[in-house]
Amino acid sequence: MKLPAKKLVISSIVAASFVVLPQIGGHHSSAKAAAINTNQVLHYGESDSSVKALQDKLQDLNYYKSTIDGIYGNQTRSAVRSFQGDNNLAVDGIAGPNTLGKLFSAKVSTQKVSNDVTLTTNLKYGDRGQAVKDLQSTLNNLGYHAGTVDGIFGSTTLNAVKSFQKAQGLQSDGIVGPNTRAALAAPKTTSTPKKTNSNVNAIIADAKALIGVPYVYGGTTTKGFDCSGFTQYVFAENGISLPRTAAAQWNGGTKVNSPSKGDLVFFATVNNGPSHVGIYLGNNQFINASSSHGVTISDMNNSYWKPRYLGARSYN
């Protein structure tokens, strides 16, 4: 007599609220899938397998285009911020439960797979593509600092758009709609926005108020600064967004032949390129976060700084 075939029963318990498996498709393989706890909080500076899974998912949606290394650095934070902006989340660069839940859900938007936006599309914070590059080039040419022409509508580009809109008598909302596009094509004035004494004085006052704060490598708070963390902090206090590193601040600013008060001054202290930055005070003095003295005022003409001086950049 023929015996009935035995049934193999496999049971599994999936804690869906706790672990989500990234969807696999396109160029990804099953070996690339990784579990992630969507109830955790991932932020800048972390390094583990959860960050790697985060990068993998962001790359799958074309937000993250760097190496998947499991290190939550600037590019990962930028990708998270872009995703948050596109999905009506708080744009803070922190991958918390809301962001992770949205990112790893089946309903997540995949608009970024096609990055380029047309010139007739409203451009806003978080957008990417050739249209954003064109916008950045135009703003830079008009004297409104939009940062590096990288096609990423970040905070620096946003501030430039708002400044341009204000100068043109438009609603300063940072969104490049029909009125702003028309103004960019035929601006009322092409002159470079002028520094105001009040803005420069505020920057210098805020910088001097931090004299004595210790130097901390990688520091970006009043507990301790490195050189670019100090300049970034002071300018942010005055509504101006700077890149994070001295080299990026050098590349992003508007070149000036000689510094004015409130400009950034750069020095080559390690190699030939910019590795140190401070804020020019006038009379050949600048304030900076020195590795030996913390936040202090230095003389550009002394024997150490003078031969290392590279030039100045304006962000005002």
TrEMBL record:
Keyword list, A-Z: Hydrolase, Protease, Thiol protease
Molecular-function GO term, any one: cysteine-type peptidase activity
Superkingdom: Bacteria
GO biological process, one term: proteolysis
Gene3D superfamilies with a match to the protein in the record: endopeptidase domain like (from Nostoc punctiforme), PGBD-like superfamily/PGBD
Domain NlpC/P60, residue spans: 197-316
InterPro entries, per the entry: NLP_P60_dom (IPR000064), Papain-like_cys_pep_sf (IPR038765), Peptidase_C40 (IPR051202), Peptidoglycan-bd-like (IPR002477), PGBD-like_sf (IPR036365), PGBDSf (IPR036366)
Annotated family: Belongs to the peptidase C40 family.
UniProt-listed PANTHER family: MUREIN DD-ENDOPEPTIDASE MEPH-RELATED
Protein name in the entry: NlpC/P60 domain-containing protein
